[in-house]
Amino acid sequence: MKKISIITVCYNSQDTLEDTIQSVLNQDYQNIEYIIVDGKSTDNTLKIIEKYQDKITKVISEPDKGLYDAINKGIKNASGEIVGIINSDDVLAYKSAVSDIAQTFEQQNCDAVYADLVYVKQNNLNSITRKWISGNYKHGKFLWGWMPPHPTFYAKKSLFEQYGYYSLQLKSAADYELMLRFIHKHKISLGYLPKTLVKMRVGGMSNASLKNRLAANQEDQMAWEMNNLTPYLFTPYLKPLRKVFQFLNK
Fold first, then answer.
1. pTM exceeds 0.90
2. What is the pLDDT of residues 131-164, one digit of tens each?
3. Under DSSP, is residue 174 helix (H, G, I), strand (E, B) or coil?
């Protein structure tokens, strides 16, 4: 049974973190390493973590250089063969989610696995606002605005050691850049789990305003440049347009 390391990064997350922790601890998979990386929170976040201390494998609480620096720190401290990330305001959607991830790795003999995701209201995890159905991957789909939902992306730790970690040059698109690098540039093998793996609360950083969305688009273009890749002229615009279908799917 492969060890799967799950990382939660948090900072002043007292309102949502307990839901996240419980969704991981309630998993039926028996070989989970759970790592929480806290940015030295000043609210009750650390008290919530302390409540579950004996069930959490490792807690790191220290200042960092932002979200992706903290994620990199968690990955480097992970001892599992497979690594995944669950944000401090998201939850795993059902108790056998990690078991299904492990089974997909086994059955499809792949380097990474992704799944589907639903967006839910901040105060109601059962109220779906849109659904991200990923679909099967075929090489070249990134050129058409496709990407897998990052909270459902589980990858072998060896990929980070071979191809690098999350870029600290990007503020909101480092997840996109990493998956572009792994999947499109280096052509890792992917497995798709056609289930809703994660419930994600609405209000992500890159979508918080038009200004943020435009900045995210610029970072998406930078992601291609950083990897010496050339997208189509319309690629940066197709990515946000794909979100329209997520509202239709709900």
1. yes
2. 999 999 999 999 999 999 999 999 999 999 999 9
3. helix
The one-letter code for the residue type at 149 is P
Q: Quick one: the chain helix, strand, coil %, rounded to 5?
A: 40, 25, 35
**Secondary structure (DSSP) of 114-143:** EEEEEEEETTEEEEEEEEE------TTGGG
Which CATH superfamily hosts domain 4-249?
Spore Coat Polysaccharide Biosynthesis Protein SpsA; Chain A (3.90.550.10)
Picking from 168, 201, 23, 1, the residue whose alpha carbon sits closest to that of residue 82 is 1
Query: Do the Cβ atoms of 121 and 202 come closer than 8 Å?
Result: yes
Provide the pairing of β-strand 82-85 with 58-61.
unpaired
Question: Residue 90 — left, alpha, or beta (φ > 0 → left; ψ -120 to 50 → alpha)?
Answer: beta
* Phi, psi for residue 121 in degrees, rounded to 5: -70, 150
Q: Measured between alpha carbons, how far is 219 from 226 in angstroms, rounded to an integer?
A: 10
- Domain range summary for the chain, segments of one domain joined by +: 4-249
pLDDT in tens, 61-99: 999 999 999 999 999 999 999 999 999 999 999 999 999
Tokens of 209: 């305003």
Q: Are 155 and 111 in contact (CB under 8 A)?
A: yes
- Helix (H) or strand (E) holding 81, with range, is none
The residue whose two tokens read 């696995």 is: 113
Residue 130 CB contacts under 8 Å (≥ 6 apart), including other chains:
118, 119, 243, 246, 247, 249, 250
